[in-house]
Amino acid sequence: MTTLLKGIIQDMHNTGELIDFYSFEPPQKSRNAVYDDVSVRGRSEPHVFYSHTEAPTYQFSIRLVASYDQRDSGTTRSVKEKEYFIESLVMPDYGPLPSSRNSVVAPPHLARIRIKKLIDIAGTIRNTNYVYLPPYDEEGYPQLIEVTFSFHVQRIFGQQEPLGFAEVRRLLWRGQGLASG
Length: 181
Known about the structure:
This protein has 181 residues and is mostly beta strands. The protein contains 2 helices and 13 strands; from the N terminus they run E-E-E-E-E-E-E-E-H-E-E-E-E-E-H. A 7-stranded antiparallel β-sheet has the order 2-1-11-12-13-6-3, covered by helices on one side. It has a two-stranded antiparallel sheet with strand order 4-5. Strand 7 (67-68) and strand 8 (76-77) form a beta hairpin. It is extended. The model is unreliable at 68-75 (pLDDT under 50).
């Protein structure tokens, strides 16, 4: 039997407002070290040069379900409101800066995603895709929306400073494991 993962997405910019979601599968994490090949005169093979390591990126496939408001006021929160909430975290804000009259395009809001003890991360949501699923309510709005998106991590909550990868390999080679280090 498959257990649903329940999580939240929170706007960390001003309001702190949040929505809940469900997922049938855990997020997929990717992280890349970028190496550049540099041609060196007099050598037949290029020299491999470390450039940088990209921030972790998670791929999510979640379901938004019509539910009750998070503040327990008894009012229902439609699935479309949840969709608009995610959309508001993806799109930039337009408006004047507090200190001037000039209009600027502000970056998207920082969002926090938490799924039980699996992950608790902050970053930006990008590349969203929505699929509307039945059943539908009286006005034709879906009761379920499947959302896929990538999440670019900027901060990890509740985690100690990560070990360097050389230290991780050394602990594993000694047979100590990571928990005992």
